Amino acid sequence: MYTTLPARRSMPIPQPVGAAVVVIAWALGGTGSVFALSHANEWGKMLDTRVPYFDVQTAGVDVARPDIRSAAEHLANIRQVLNPAIADLATVFGVSRQAIYKWIGGESTPEADKLERIRSLSLAADAFQKAEVTRASSLLKMKAFDGRSLLDLVAAGQLAPEHSQTLIAEAQAMDAAYSRSGLAKSKAAPSDDWRAELSIPGSSE
């Protein structure tokens, strides 16, 4: 038995099923071709590439987008959030300071293993920024991981997201302790007098 598929229908069709039906009707009905219903499986395959794929399992879910930032962009992010010294970056990535400057300027591209370490530190910077950690730079050299710092882990290629989260939790705990101390509400002007010799007992002055 053969039948001619109808052209577009004007009757309302529920969404989102309606969208798929309209696309199929346009793809088939608009041609005026005749298809054997007994071979529906065969001509149905021809529509696979013409009907947009819609994954209902991921509908409404925030799917992580791939990180396509360049090495220069990652380094700019690291410097803005973590503010490390160029010499420290050179040590961590095992290159000269001149190489770091060339990466920052986009004049050259780091090797794959170094790029991966740069990316891991940049993702750590992202985590600190998202958590609104204001003293991220002071946490870079904190020996919080069996005597190793965040920079030590980067140099070894062992930095993982949980390490950043540990330091974020530490920073948040320090901020909470500072707030409880009442120093945040003090009206006294900040001073560096404690750095002077006069603040050191037994000094000559």
The percent range for strand residues is: under 5%
Largest sheet: 2 strands, antiparallel
Helix proportion of residues, in percent? 40-55%
Our count of helices gives 8
Mean pLDDT: 75
**Radius of gyration, whole Å:** 30 Å
Q: Give the total of beta strands.
A: 2
Give the overall shape. elongated
Low-confidence residue ranges: 17-31, 49-59, 194-200
Number of domains: 2
Task: Please outline the helices and strands.
Blueprint: E1 2-4, H1 17-29, E2 34-36, H2 40-45, H3 71-81, H4 86-93, H5 97-104, H6 112-130, H7 150-155, H8 161-181
Antiparallel strand pairs: 1-2
What can you see in these coordinates?
The protein is mainly α. The protein folds into two domains: 2-54, no CATH class; 71-180, no CATH class. It has eight helices and two strands. It has helices spanning 17-29, 40-45, 71-81, 86-93, 97-104, 112-130, 150-155, 161-181; strands at 2-4, 34-36. A two-stranded antiparallel ribbon has the order 1-2. Helix 3 runs parallel beside helix 6, helix 4 (86-93) crosses helix 5 and helix 6 packs parallel to helix 8. The protein starts with a strand and ends in a 24-residue tail after the last helix. The model is unreliable at 17-31, 49-59 and 194-200 (pLDDT under 50).
